[in-house]
Amino acid sequence: MKLHSLLFINLVICLGVGVLLVGVHCTESSSPPFACDSSDPLTESYAFCNTTLRISQRASDLISRLTLDEKISQLINSAASIPRLGIPAYEWWSEALHGIRDRHGIRFNGTIRSATSFPQVILTAASFDAHLWYRIGQAIGIETRAMYNAGQAMGMTFWAPNINIFRDPRWGRGQETPGEDPVVAGKYAVSYVRGLQGDCFEGGKVDVLQASACCKHFTAYDLDNWNGIDRYTFDARVTMQDLADTYQPPFRSCIEEGRASGLMCAYNRVNGVPNCADFNLLSKTVRGQWGFDGYIVSDCDAVSLVYDVQGYAKSPEDAVASVLTAGMDVDCGSYLQKHGKSAVMEKKLTESEIDRALLNLFTVRMRLGLFNGNPRKLPFGNIGPDQVCSTEHQTLALEAARNGIVLLKNSDRLLPLSKGETLSLAVIGPNANATDTLLGNYAGPPCKFISPLQGLQSYVNNTMYHSGCNDVACPSASIENAVDVAKQADYVVLVMGLDQTQEREKHDRLDLVLPGKQEQLITSVAKAAKKPVVLILLCGGPVDISFAKGNSNIGSILWAGYPGEAGGAAIAETIFGDHNPGGRLPVTWYPKDFIKIPMTDMRMRPEPPSGYPGRTYRFYTGEKVFEFGDGLSYSSYSYEFFSVTPNKLYLNQPSTAHVVENSSYVSVSELGTEFCEAKKFSAIIAVRNGGEMAGKHPVLLFVKQAKAGNGSPMKQLVGFQNVFLDAGESANVEFILSPCEHLSRANKDGLRVMEQGIHLLVVGDKEYPIAIVA
């Protein structure tokens, strides 16, 4: 789809303009399922089909017409049809983490056989580019609507994004997330959700949804299967402080700013209570405090765990009652269908509680336009198969892969390699000719594949290849043969790392090193090569590669995550200088000894007396292989604080003087909204590209306290922006900061407080002090 078309559709939705888009011609077999067909004479008598009424009225009318059995049939992901009312079956479960996945509500068995496969989220996050994240969400949203219009989607609710914090480096699903920082995860959620749902980048709370996004997994979920403990039985013991400033903020941003229409509650318990049965979480916090007005779905079969596995409820009927009264709406599974009616008959569940859930469910389906008649004659009705795997979307996938790749080492400026002087190239490693590995998990059939080997072959005709190992597990390695190949080439590129056999859903890692004999293969080849080698790592979670970091025979290291369908091209362009790398790590890379820390320990903050080092860059006090935000470039960038106003913040306002008296801190809630708004200030940073190459550069702004204590982070990211600079060019980047948000911390009760003293704005090696005084 051309850019002006994308912008037009987005404008239609953002402004609420009543435009009728002409539908494409489809055969009857490819018709999308919808209700309220105008050709049906009964339609006119149904208030739920009357589009002039408010959606809440329409949904209430529909619910009033249903029998108890029909109501219960709608409480599971595969909602049954209701033929007497002309309502088709609906599948709530579809996936679109970084492209459309081919299962559940989606079938690639018609006109559309593939979809654009963007990089796995952890690599996309490394771009620190919110607008890129929005454009990816927007492209995926367009392709999902095209699937529906082609009759290949049984629903338009997609259970993405995954915005759990990547707390522990062993987590198999960390690859699906935007990383370890709650600000990044929250901003990713907002950008992706707005794009997928058809909102503006700046947000505008659309009423008509292009597709429905669902933020998951709520909450404190980041363990799948480790050391005999699985996600189904795990009870995450989390402090109010850690909930407030680490685990909850991404979900709050997703709901309050992104206006997501879906939320998924996780398998695990938090402090003894199953997430899906926690009234305080789902109703008081999510709906009450954050104003969520969408639907809440359980993770799949999570409802059955409440009684069958976790023993939280005394019977199946009690389990059903506990989740629905807590605020959940739909069961991914069949437990509500099996035990819902008996729960009502036993008076453990009221029918009005079922009606409450149905109101949320039918409201979302109506916002998707599925009860407005023929969707081909409605907004988004003209999105056809030609807009799946379009040139624009495939180019965007390549752009995303380029911008996420992180250069971690580049001794003596080995990279970029000269296109003219590189006459022969050896490409070695089990991931060198990988295709499926590029996609990561939760992927569907891509438009195309470009492996690293294929990408590099497009630059050097005389390219030799050897896998070195049969697979990434590498129980044995053909080291002698790989060394022989390496000796023949001008330059050697090793493509190593992990794949889904090593890290995935239901499979956490037990160590942080490269599998099998990969390290031995790397060091042997590097020692034999004519020149220092280039090491490329494909992996989602971090790996301890200290051996390579300090090895002079390994000149350059690139982390490429799981870079998607165009990953091989992006890697080759970076190696040969057609792209200047600018990605920065969204997670801390820990040493291999970190595995001594139990994965089940949810504490973020360190505990020095016991030797517990804490987690993530915000709190971790131990040694690091690479730090959050690390990333080199072929250029060099410098910063200066150009303008910051003010450099002193006074808290002794008349309304708050009594709060700060005889205290080193003040509660943000006591300061009030008016004070917080009035105290917002601007920080302008001058950025200069001092290198010889143009480049796109993420500017990361942190805050830290001069004397951190009381559980404060060592530093905290408060904003990030991208700037493109030609060689020698400078530009100013402005951040608008709110002291109540950015200069505050969570106390042990989970409340935001501001402390007196010196707070430092930090960008690169520059610091700017701001004093908070009473």
TrEMBL record:
Major location (coarse): secreted
Subcellular location(s) of the protein: Secreted
GO CC field: extracellular region; plant-type cell wall
Gene Ontology terms, MF aspect: alpha-L-arabinofuranosidase activity; xylan 1,4-beta-xylosidase activity
Residues annotated as domain Fibronectin type III-like: 697-767
GO biological process, one term: xylan catabolic process
Signal peptide interval: 1-29
Entry annotated with the keyword Hydrolase: yes
Ranges in coiled-coil conformation: none
Keyword tags: Glycoprotein, Glycosidase, Hydrolase, Secreted, Signal
InterPro entries xref list: BXL, Fn3-like, GH, Glyco_hydro_3_C, Glyco_hydro_3_C_sf, Glyco_hydro_3_N, Glyco_hydro_3_N_sf, Ig-like_fold
PANTHER family linked to this entry: BETA-D-XYLOSIDASE 5-RELATED, SUGAR HYDROLASE-RELATED
Family the UniProt entry places it in: Belongs to the glycosyl hydrolase 3 family.
Protein name: Fibronectin type III-like domain-containing protein
Natural source organism: Vitis rotundifolia (Muscadine grape)
